[in-house]
Design brief:
This protein has 467 residues and is of the alpha/beta class. 36% of the residues lie in helices and 16% in strands. The chain has two domains: 45-75 and 360-463, Aspartate Aminotransferase, domain 1 (Alpha-Beta Complex); 84-357, Type I PLP-dependent aspartate aminotransferase-like (Major domain) (Aspartate Aminotransferase, domain 2).
Length: 467
């Protein structure tokens, strides 16, 4: 090493000068490979700083964060309580391994999650992202049936819903069902037993709304009757299938699934990566129907959107199947370098404290009601086929023909057009095809919520004008 550099190392412009906006944009196009983004068409948007529910780009232009920075920022940006917790932890230790060791902050977070979670979920496995938390649950369920007192080694498959999305690792993609995302990787995926998603807007003809849950549960039971001997677990998002287009399930469906899985000795994996941490108006979506799953998967909002951290909570019954001597080789064969990272754990503990200190869940009720008022008005627009809401989750589906529910061709990008108009009005959104997603931070004010919906309304008018 010479002069602080390795031989042949280059001193580049990114190291020696402050880059201009144009340089940053060029490097962003050339070097950063963005997720779910066609890079040939990508137009950079460089967010430099944030405060509260507002993001600010490198030109100083402010945008309301209408999708919580991909559904994870729940208390707003630069929250003093979370900022302080991270600084305090940084002064102690930034990282320790969770393989055979731990740290006090992560232990405290595990205890707090156990206190908050539905009964019997007493054991927490930490990972780095929501997809991994689902992957962990899938592998735990598989290993559980080989190691419990009465082994069921034939239970090697999973039951999942159509249009499901559980992440982008291969196991979570296998149980996912969004064809546009996953068709490319089909040769790499394992087989999954699939049941229809419990659709309401595009539900079966002749089935009244109050019978939809029973209708779809009967389909699930038919599958379990035939295949329960080979199914280890049912994986689903409680109440709302988020990436599928904010599909809100009929009331009673979640409770019915819990009853069926118990009856047929199938584990229930509740993927609350998107719908947990207060998003539905309760800390966990499962609470709405008094359901305790066998696995609860958390991510996104767990740290308030500050740092990557996910958790898979499991029951004591599952945990015991992994206990034994070293020689018995029963431990869980899975682990991540940053699982249980203390900086992320400190952010998560602070985020959970904010829920109590600022009465977040109680203060959500007026916001949920205001969102419902806006959606009721927008539902009357000529090319709005359906509006869906659960807590501070909303989806507005645009259709070509409301009478037949015929969708717009996906390549017309009607949803993206709405979001472009909203961005011009200082609101950042990201659609799911022709579904406009509204998922603001839980800390959003009523005035800010009004601004978001006004921009959405204007965007819909512009994007459907030619129709």
């Amino acid at each position: 090493m010479v002069g602080g550099l390795w031989p042949n190392a280059r001193v580049t412009d990114s190291q020696t000068t402050t880059p201009s906006r144009q340089e940053l944009e060029r490097w962003d196009r050339e070097h950063v490979w963005h997720a779910f983004t066609q890079m040939a068409e990508y137009e950079p948007l460089l967010i430099e700083r944030a405060h509260g529910c507002t993001l600010v780009d490198v030109d100083g232009r402010a945008y309301l964060d209408g999708v919580s920075s991909l559904w994870c920022n729940i208390h707003g940006h630069c929250h003093p309580r979370i900022d302080a917790a991270i600084r305090e932890q940084l002064a102690l230790v930034a990282h320790t391994t969770s393989l055979g060791a731990s740290n006090p902050t992560t232990v405290r977070l595990a205890r707090r999650l156990v206190e908050l979670a539905p009964a019997s979920l007493n054991h927490v496995f930490f990972s780095g992202d929501g997809s991994s938390s689902v992957e962990v649950a899938l592998k735990m369920a598989f290993q559980y049936y080989r190691q419990r007192k009465d082994p069921r080694p034939d239970k090697t498959k999973y039951l999942a819903l159509a249009d499901a999305y559980h992440g982008d690792t291969l196991g979570s993609v296998s149980v996912g069902g969004v064809e546009r995302f996953h068709a490319m990787f089909e040769p790499l995926l394992f087989d999954v037993v699939r049941v229809p998603a419990p659709l309401v807007y595009r539900g079966p003809a002749g089935v009244p709304p109050d019978r939809l849950a029973d209708h779809y549960l009967a389909l699930v039971e038919r599958v379990l009757e035939q295949h329960h001997d080979e199914i280890a677990a049912l994986v689903m998002e409680p109440l709302v299938q988020a990436a599928a287009g904010m599909l809100v399930h009929p009331r009673g469906y979640l409770r019915g699934l819990r009853e069926l899985t118990r009856r047929y000795d199938v584990l229930l994996i509740a993927d609350e990566v998107a719908v947990g941490c207060g998003r539905t108006g309760r800390m966990f979506a499962c609470e709405h129907e008094d359901v305790a799953p066998d696995f609860l998967c958390l991510g996104k909002g767990l740290t308030g959107g500050y740092l990557p951290l996910a958790a898979t909570l499991a029951t004591t019954e599952v945990w015991r199947a992994f206990l034994g001597t070293y020689a018995e080789n029963r431990q869980f064969f899975h682990g991540h370098t940053y699982g249980g990272n203390p900086l992320a754990a400190a952010a998560a503990l602070a985020s959970l404290a904010v829920f109590d200190e600022e009465h977040v869940l109680a203060n959500m009720r007026p916001k949920i009601d205001r969102l419902a008022e806006h959606l009721a008005r927008i539902a009357d627009y000529p090319h709005v086929g359906d509006v869906r809401q659960c807590g501070l989750i909303a989806g507005i589906e645009l259709v070509q023909d409301p009478a037949t529910k015929e969708p717009y061709p996906w390549h017309q990008q009607r949803g993206a057009q709405v979001c472009r108009v909203a961005r011009d009005e200082g609101v950042l959104l990201r659609p799911l095809g022709n579904v406009i997603v509204i998922m603001p931070p839980l800390a959003i004010t009523l005035a800010e919520l009004d601004r978001i919906l006004a921009a959405v309304e204007h965007g819909i008018a512009e994007a459907t004008r030619d129709a």
